[in-house]
Amino acid sequence: MTDSSAFARLRRKQFSQLDRSNVVYLDYTGACPVPKSLPEQHISNLSSNVYANPHSASLPSSAATAAFHRAKTTVLRFFNARDHELIFTANASSAIHLVAQTFPFQRDSTLYLTADNHNSVLALRESARMARCNTVLIPLESRLTLSQPLSYLYKHNAASSAPSLFAYPAQSNFSGVRHDLQLVHHARSKDIHVLLDAAAYAPTSALDLSRVQADFVPISFYKMFGYPTGIGALIVRKSALSVLRKNWFAGGTVKFVSVASDLHILHDGADAFQDGTVDFLSFPAIVNGIHLLSKIGMPNITKHVATVTHTFLHQIQHMRYANGARMALIYGPNLHDNTIPRGGTVAMDLLDSRGKRMDCHFVEREAGRRGIAIRAGCFCNPGCAERVFDIDGLSVAECVRKGYTAYDCTSGIGCFRVSFGMGTVKKDIKAFLAFVRELCNSYGAKF
Ligand SMILES: Cc1ncc(COP(=O)(O)O)c(C=O)c1O
């Protein structure tokens, strides 16, 4: 594998802290490392402008309001979101939570959830439960693709006037599988609203919301470009915004509140959902982050990550012990499943020479001792983990009944994940593969 000179240059210019600290960073699905230019530009902006709480009319307050509008317009334009509005939130989870709190589930509504979902999305089922409506689970095939999702969505009774919701990730944070964006169109044709979780997809792929007309799209900015943390967004289709029902108000969301008359009037549109004072100092940094991605070019990032991932899969799948046994087991699409669209997240385990899985937390610790950052566990995506390790609902329930969490008493659940992004270069892959060989030869060779 040769790095294109552009990405080698990007690494030197923006992510030199990785090399200076001898960190082999392979957790881009967790967070993108901080590109050097973003905090520098941010500090320079904050030291030459005066920003204040945007809820007043002073000049510093107006500067913050202008920065808010600039950030909002820049993000919406980046996603080509002409029919959408944007609400800033603390992160993708709070964007999803906002939908959970305000989507008007009724008894005849249906919530469609894919088994591949982050916990923050799975939690929508608790709002559905409160409304006593049905949750339908769309299961996974062995390669962690969705199992006939259309057969579930097309059974939906579009005649029901109760609003229904389908929630799925554009890209799995577990397996890297990219689920079909056309499902948005299919669900909407049956009058089902769609929450498309773009948290793991947006950092390495362009998402054109003028083509993919999802109703609710949560994102976290630190996953896309590393800095700032503590701010995300819910991008909402304008017509879907009017479906949401907000039964509370907060500072910033009201035109008017009276104590004497027990009345309040919410702002119109997205402003009714922007609770309290947003992290207004972050707005200039968001604009710079989006500019950085646009300058590199999302198609270039997609291509770079695809090349890195392909090389990685090719090399790791060919690693063998002296007895011919493979050293690694990939969960989800592997090299040979080239018809399954995937991003740069790979879930896997290391095996000993008899085919037994090594403990993923041991692998994570040993990697950490060598400066290699990977992630072990189920990555807040229990549905994928349960599918991979063949754990059914009854055994989970029995576990919990005994006072354990499912993952404590279901031996060996969990694996580890490596993930790539715009800062990944070939030496990262080389270092990880050398680590795998070393660990397998020292701990896994059992002849
Ligand atoms: C697919 C997906 N959705 C949602 C989230 C939640 O993001 P955050 O922790 O930034 O709220 C994550 C985080 O890893 C994720 O990968």
Automatic annotation (TrEMBL):
<protein>
    <submittedName>
        <fullName>Molybdenum cofactor sulfurase</fullName>
    </submittedName>
</protein>
<dbReference type="Pfam" id="PF00266">
    <property type="entry name" value="Aminotran_5"/>
</dbReference>
<dbReference type="InterPro" id="IPR015424">
    <property type="entry name" value="PyrdxlP-dep_Trfase"/>
</dbReference>
<dbReference type="InterPro" id="IPR015422">
    <property type="entry name" value="PyrdxlP-dep_Trfase_small"/>
</dbReference>
<dbReference type="InterPro" id="IPR015421">
    <property type="entry name" value="PyrdxlP-dep_Trfase_major"/>
</dbReference>
<feature type="domain" description="Aminotransferase class V">
    <location>
        <begin position="24"/>
        <end position="432"/>
    </location>
</feature>
<dbReference type="InterPro" id="IPR000192">
    <property type="entry name" value="Aminotrans_V_dom"/>
</dbReference>
